[in-house]
């Protein structure tokens, strides 16, 4: 023992390095063990769904998974196979996994997809945006938009997961909880933005649209990866040297919020017999006078000339309120009078919350808007963190258009807020 202690004292640098390496290895192995326990518990819970008895005549529910293996720097495929796929297969669902090979493929596949009971998106914000765009571009989108959608967060940016699931620092737990939430069947309605250019087909988004200097600088942050945690500040700092002040000019026309209609019942009653329908038709014809169609009131458009450092148009999905009586999207026009230091500081905040609306900004609630850009305007829009060429667009709110699976605790909290 004395010889061992003497050797450790004489070679203290090697001993310290070995102790650190041993401690790191033990912590890594313990983390792997905890992850395996989480996977096992999730699979046991999923197996309880799969063991439920069902009539022999009832077909299995079909679930179509759109997996983007390139998400999360190419790790999404492995994350799905380890954490989500076993849960889905044990649940008793008839699972079909469709892997996308290139950008935009999910849109094309959704336009020709056959009937399915569930749609599951496994990826990040870009994958969600592609899937809902392909879904809502279909000719029969009125029927297909009623199919519930599940989201398994596997991408680098997963904005929607903050709305659907509780926060979790453990990636394995976050993925397994999201997959189990799909099996539990609780859903919430989410708003969708329809963004249409002059010639292009419409694009749909669940988060929103950004146009401005903060977005442009944030996109370039990856170029400064060698600066580590300072790369975001560096991207905004270098953008100041290239151009200052940074102004974006445009014309905005918008219509205010609309009244929220009562929600339609999910299940419709069975069709009455033919003689009952004939009797009702005759009774309504003879008893009630004919009503002339009412004229629809013209929309009250307002116009605004703006000069801003950044413009954002966002849904209210991050602040869901089921008791809301009006439907609208938030338009945030940020003041152009921003100091250089404040620009760098606020840019870091916007990387964490892209649609934050800082003090001094002009906030507008609208159900529809038209954004007109000056001729020769360069740059790009960020639509659900995906880049699109900047052009004049019309943005229309589609309230409660899609239903997404969520954690039962999230739905319970929203319902309690309605009762209060």
Automatic annotation (TrEMBL):
It is found in: Mitochondrion inner membrane; Mitochondrion intermembrane space. Its cofactor is Mg(2+). It comes from the Eukaryota. SMART domains: DAGKc (SM00046). GO terms for cellular component: mitochondrial inner membrane; mitochondrial intermembrane space. Keywords: ATP-binding, Kinase, Lipid metabolism, Membrane, Mitochondrion, Mitochondrion inner membrane, Nucleotide-binding, Transferase. It is a peripheral membrane protein. It catalyses: 1-(9Z-octadecenoyl)-sn-glycerol + ATP = 1-(9Z-octadecenoyl)-sn-glycero-3-phosphate + ADP + H(+); a 2-acylglycerol + ATP = a 2-acyl-sn-glycerol 3-phosphate + ADP + H(+); 2-(5Z,8Z,11Z,14Z-eicosatetraenoyl)-glycerol + ATP = 2-(5Z,8Z,11Z,14Z-eicosatetraenoyl)-sn-glycero-3-phosphate + ADP + H(+); an N-acylsphing-4-enine + ATP = an N-acylsphing-4-enine 1-phosphate + ADP + H(+). The keyword ATP-binding applies. GO terms for biological process: ceramide biosynthetic process; glycerolipid metabolic process; sphingosine biosynthetic process. Its EC number is 2.7.1.107, 2.7.1.138, 2.7.1.94. Its main location: mitochondrion. Pfam families: AGK_C, DAGK_cat. Pathway: Glycerolipid metabolism; Lipid metabolism; glycerolipid metabolism. GO terms for molecular function: acylglycerol kinase activity; ATP binding; ATP-dependent diacylglycerol kinase activity; ceramide kinase activity. InterPro entries: AGK_C, ATP-NAD_kinase_N, Diacylglycerol_kinase_cat_dom, Lipid_Phosphate_FormReg, NAD/diacylglycerol_kinase_sf. PROSITE patterns: DAGK. Residues 58-199 form the DAGKc domain. Belongs to the AGK family. This is Acylglycerol kinase, mitochondrial. It comes from Pheucticus melanocephalus. The gene is Agk.
């Amino acid at each position: 023992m004395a010889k061992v202690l003497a050797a450790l004292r004489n070679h203290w640098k090697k001993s310290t390095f070995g102790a650190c390496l041993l401690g790191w290895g033990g912590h890594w192995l313990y983390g792997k063990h905890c992850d395996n326990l989480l996977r096992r518990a999730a699979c046991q819970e999923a197996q309880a769904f799969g063991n439920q008895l069902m009539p022999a005549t009832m077909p299995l529910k079909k679930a179509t998974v759109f997996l983007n293996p390139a998400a999360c720097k190419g790790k999404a495929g492995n994350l799905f196979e380890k954490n989500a796929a076993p849960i889905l297969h044990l649940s008793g669902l008839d699972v079909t996994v469709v892997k996308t090979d290139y950008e935009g493929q999910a849109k094309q596949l959704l336009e020709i997809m056959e009937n399915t009971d569930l749609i599951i998106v496994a990826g990040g914000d870009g994958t969600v945006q592609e899937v809902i765009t392909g879904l809502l571009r279909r000719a029969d989108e009125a029927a297909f938009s009623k199919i519930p959608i599940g989201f398994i967060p596997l991408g680098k940016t997963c904005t929607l997961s903050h709305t659907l699931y509780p926060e979790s620092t453990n990636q394995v737990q976050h993925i397994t909880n999201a997959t189990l939430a799909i099996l539990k069947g609780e859903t919430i309605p989410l708003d969708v933005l329809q963004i249409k250019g002059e010639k292009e087909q419409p694009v749909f988004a669940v988060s929103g649209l950004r146009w401005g200097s903060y977005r442009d600088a944030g996109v370039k942050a990856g170029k400064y990866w060698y600066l580590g945690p300072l790369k975001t500040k560096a991207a905004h700092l270098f953008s100041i040297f290239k151009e200052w002040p940074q102004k974006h000019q445009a014309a905005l026309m918008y219509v205010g919020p609309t009244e929220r209609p009562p929600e339609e019942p999910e299940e419709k009653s069975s069709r009455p017999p033919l003689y009952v329908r004939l009797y009702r038709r005759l009774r309504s014809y003879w008893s009630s006078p004919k009503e002339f169609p009412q004229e629809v009131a013209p929309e009250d458009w307002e116009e605004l000339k703006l000069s801003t450092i950044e413009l954002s148009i966002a849904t209210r999905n991050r602040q869901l309120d089921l008791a809301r009586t009006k439907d609208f999207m938030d338009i945030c026009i940020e003041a152009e009078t921003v100091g250089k230091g404040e620009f760098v500081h606020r840019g870091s905040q916007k990387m964490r919350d892209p649609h934050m609306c800082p003090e001094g900004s002009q906030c507008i609630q609208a159900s529809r808007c038209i954004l007109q850009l000056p001729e020769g305007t360069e740059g790009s829009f960020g639509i659900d963190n995906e880049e699109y060429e900047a052009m004049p667009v019309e943005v229309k709110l589609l309230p409660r258009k899609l239903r997404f699976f969520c954690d039962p605790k999230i739905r319970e909290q929203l319902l309690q807020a309605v009762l209060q």
